[in-house]
Specification:
Elements: E1 3-9, H1 16-31, E2 36-43, E3 51-57, H2 60-72, E4 88-93
Antiparallel strand pairs: 1-3, 1-4, 2-3
């Protein structure tokens, strides 16, 4: 079963560029895992300054392995005061 996620992040203006760079590092680590079909970083264009990350995997196992790769790569994924509101993360399953 194909699985995926969409995550909405809301970095503070002064941390926006750094946050985008961190998302790209996470994406690179995730893409390194067999079974990862895609991981992308999007920027909202509606003035909300949201960073949206998306991903798709061949299986639940590949999905889990990609997140393990992020931990192993020691990429900073900490939620803290660099973001002005909580992240919204949605795990998805293809139908």
């Amino acid at each position: 079963m194909t699985v995926g996620f969409v995550a909405f992040h809301y970095p503070r203006t002064e941390h926006f560029d750094d946050f985008v760079a961190r998302v790209h590092k996470v994406a690179a680590a995730m893409r390194s895992v067999p079974g990862c079909l895609s991981v992308d970083c999007w920027i909202s264009t509606d003035g909300d300054d949201a960073v949206v990350s998306t991903g798709q995997w061949e299986s639940e196992e590949a999905f889990a392995a990609s997140f393990a790769a992020v931990v192993a790569a020691q990429v900073d994924v900490t939620f803290d005061d660099r973001e002005h509101r909580p992240r919204q993360i949605f795990k998805l399953a293809a139908r």
